Amino acid sequence: MAASKTITVEQIGSPIRRPAKQRQTLIGLGLNKMRRRRTLEDTPAVRGMVESISHLVRIVEDKA
């Protein structure tokens, strides 16, 4: 079984005073507090979610 590609996403913006859809997208990615990180599968769905809230999250480049 081949290892799936992953991306690490870190929340850098607050969901306070943001539209409900953006807050729900953060929750869908497993984020809800500042500086929290999640490692997720690199799929088109995840990339789309990250792109839709790109002002609230960033992709972390891990040196492995």
Structural overview:
This protein is α+β, with helices and mostly antiparallel strands and 64 residues long. The protein has a single domain, classed as 2-Layer Sandwich (Ribosomal Protein L30, Chain: A). The protein has two helices and three strands; from the N terminus they run E-H-E-H-E. The chain has helices at 20-28, 44-52; strands at 6-11, 37-41, 57-60. The chain has a three-stranded antiparallel β-sheet with strand order 2-1-3, with no helix packed on it. The protein is globular. The model has no long low-confidence stretch (mean pLDDT 92).
Q: What is the distance, rounded to the nearest whole angstrom, between the alpha carbons of the first and last residues? A: 21 Å
CATH names the topology as Ribosomal Protein L30, Chain: A
Q: How would you sum up the global shape? A: globular
**What is the helix/strand order?**
EHEHE
Q: How many domain regions?
A: 1
CATH superfamily: Ribosomal protein L30/L7
- Major β-sheet annotation: 3 strands, antiparallel
Stretches with pLDDT under 50, minimum 5 residues:
none
The CATH class is: Alpha Beta
- Please compute the radius of gyration using only Cα atoms: 12 Å
